[in-house]
Amino acid sequence: MCGIVAYIGPKDATPFLLEGLARLEYRGYDSAGVAVTGRSGGIKLRKVKGRVADLAAAVPARFKGTTGIGHTRWATHGVPSDANAHPHLDNAERIAVVHNGIIENADELRAKLTADGAVFRSETDTEVLAHLIAAHVAEGVELEDAVRAALGRVVGTYGIAVLDAEQPDRIVVARNGSPIVLGIGEKEMFAASDVSALVRYTRQVVHLEDGELATVRADGFRTFTEDARTTHRQPSTVDWEVDSYDTGGYEHFLLKEIHEQPGSVERTLSGRLDERFATAHLGGLNLDARELREIRRVKILGCGSAYYAGEMGAQLIEELARIPAHSEPASEFRYRNPVIEADTLYVAVSQSGETYDTLAAVQEIKRKGGRVLGVVNTVGSAIARECDGGIYLHAGPEVSVASTKAFTSTVVAFALLALHFGRIHDLSPADGRRIVSALQALPDQIREVLEQSESIAELAAEYAESAGMMFIGRVRGFPVAREGAQKLKEISYVHAEAYPASELKHGPLALISPELPTLALVPDDELLDKNLTTLGEIKARSGRVIAVGHRRPEEKLADHFILVPKSEPELDPLLLNIPLQLLAYHAAVALGRDVDKPRNLAKSVTVE
Ligand code: AGP
Prior knowledge:
The protein is of the alpha/beta class. The strands form five sheets. An eight-stranded antiparallel sheet has the order 3-2-4-1-10-9-11-15, with helices on one face. It has a seven-stranded antiparallel sheet with strand order 5-6-7-8-12-13-14, covered by helices on one side. The chain has a five-stranded parallel sheet with strand order 19-18-20-21-22, with helices on both faces. Helix 9 packs parallel to helix 13, helix 14 runs parallel beside helix 18 and helix 16 runs parallel beside helix 18.
């Protein structure tokens, strides 16, 4: 997904812009560009199709300026090319614009601007902004007023940064549906679409709200609304470590993040378990016990892996609190005119906190008077701010496109919510203690699974060339199967299908053959016998089976077995998922894939 960086201060902007863009690479992109200006006037521009390293190689030594903007582009309007890469300039080459998001009325604006004499040099929707803003500044309008006027004519979503060669003492940024965060330095200021680009330089940040703009100067900033009313924003401190954005000796961010899970789970649990009352404390819910007792249903919303984590969450809430709970893709929910019930608790799940579909679902619920909690990793993100309360994951920044540690921490957060809910309802103190102890044991149990990385790598190498893989699980195991299949297809591009094990005989059994291996989740719970019967059905069709569970099945039922430490049945899915992450990772490596930046995907999908 596109990324924005901006700098204004006494130093040369280019090194920060290039470094910041490199920090945003993980979001996925196909081209990159920078533009700088300074007291000497004029705009210097470089943009290339390809990587940030290609851009850095194309930037000459004399490319200097104290005010600059940069961008990584993920093509929406027009193919990836040098011309379509941002920044975009007006014809007088006075204004430069970088933009994340989509301008829906770009064709109409382009036609009008062309009729007025503008000559377009790209196929992008963004270029209309450069021409619109330029038309206003040419009439002597201040840059911030010109940007406001231009945005007033635009329909769509945007995060933008704008440079004016004739007003090099400022950059104007604006947000509407696509994040912009300001970074406050010592006599210098930064802006970016993601704090990861800023943390090396400052921890003091200000997140813009939708509909808000800012004029950023070297010595400070002023925020205001689209109708020019000044707003007052207090900076917050980012507590993520700079080294979270380095691979720290691991070959890939993904492997590092898989191995960080014992620590990230500890942080999700930290200070939230109450052994005395065998419950969980969740200070951010903003709902007291009486209000929670009035809730009759829980509806969980998220996209992709966040949705699957929500499925595990729904299972936990139903089991521990005996409240009907259901997870649905936010991307579907928002388009189906959902019925919003007063006694339903809505929970939005998002690692980034910026996924547009999930944000739109939250806004729809709130517009209809519903109550929404967020289970979010990124503090201060749009979804976190939009929700009425929630649980922060504290998993730390997740850089690799495929979600692993945030997924696990989301399920842990749901276990805490389910425990809290359960103990308000009928979960006994003994059962509460059982869950508290099991949660405390998770970090060490995850470490045990991670120790098997090498043997899982051998298995992955053996199966990586398969045409596809079937993932099956029953009840608690089914969301694990779905997430396992998602991870494999996402990073290795091997086709993977997830089915409830119980459904196999109703259709997909026809697919089983020696060419289609099955990964089967076979926890040692009340459904073990049923699962073993399913393995027998697969083996009878000469299917190969990798079983993941707590007890090795008979040799005739499984070709391979991955042992996972036993937790309480409700929490077993969390641990069963960890070897599936390793399997997907090692399969992707065996196939030589771009593990951290899989093709066609972006880390956070901030467009519709
Ligand atoms: C996970 O591996 C995927 N990259 C993707 O499905 C992701 O979970 C989804 O896009 C939601 O992202 P979010 O958690 O940042 O909202």
